[in-house]
Amino acid sequence: MPVTYQSTVVKASLGDVWDRISNFHDLSWAPEVITKCEKIGDAGGGEVGAKRVLNDAFHETVTRVDAGEHVIEYSIDDGPSPVSANDVSNYLGVIKLKPVTMGDGDSTFVEWSSSWDSDSDDAVDFCHGIYVALLNGLRASF
């Protein structure tokens, strides 16, 4: 099972970072990476079942939201190769936030990981690069 793991520290409070990322339908904080985020269906951006299409290519669905633990899990249902439905299955992305208690001022540790089933590791570098860019966008948005 291929996996990716990325993390960063954002100089903002846990609550502020959660407010920014918890709306699955709003990625305006990463304009260098996400040029279009289309809401699909009636579910709100903070609800299980929320769907979106990113950049006319990535079809994703929220599978878990835990506001108390500051965790969002989602699937990639289809996308371009190497994350298309023909290339991978059971794709699970996980975003976790934790407060940083050392240092000066409020900061938040953000982890973004993903795993999936595939006979190939082709999606590892592809996904890693996207998530690093998204985390850089998140950090820069504060």
Outline:
The protein is α+β, with helices and mostly antiparallel strands and 142 residues long. The protein has one domain: START domain (Alpha-D-Glucose-1,6-Bisphosphate, Chain A, domain 4, 2-Layer Sandwich), CATH 3.30.530.20.
Using brief descriptors, characterize the structure shown.
about 140 residues; alpha+beta; Alpha-D-Glucose-1,6-Bisphosphate, Chain A, domain 4; about 20% helix
Notes on the structure:
This protein has 142 residues and is an alpha+beta fold. It has one domain (3-140): 2-Layer Sandwich (Alpha-D-Glucose-1,6-Bisphosphate, Chain A, domain 4). The protein is 19% helix and 39% strand. The chain has helices at residues 14-21, 122-140; strands at residues 3-10, 37-40, 51-54, 58-66, 71-78, 89-100, 107-117. The model has no long low-confidence stretch (mean pLDDT 96).
Radius of gyration: 15 Å
**Low-confidence runs (pLDDT<50, min 5 residues)?**
none
Write the CATH fold name: Alpha-D-Glucose-1,6-Bisphosphate, Chain A, domain 4
- Averaging pLDDT over every residue, what do you get? 96
* Strand count: 7
Helix tally equals 2
CATH-derived architecture = 2-Layer Sandwich
Q: Give the helix proportion (percent range).
A: 10-25%
Tally of distinct domains: 1
Q: End-to-end span in angstroms?
A: 34 Å
Beta-strand proportion: 35-45%
CATH superfamily: START domain
Biggest pleated sheet: 7 strands, antiparallel
Q: Biggest sheet, strands in spatial order?
A: 1-7-6-5-4-3-2
What structural class is derived from the secondary structure elements?
alpha+beta
CATH class: Alpha Beta
In one word, what is the shape?
Answer: globular
- The SSE order reads EHEEEEEEH
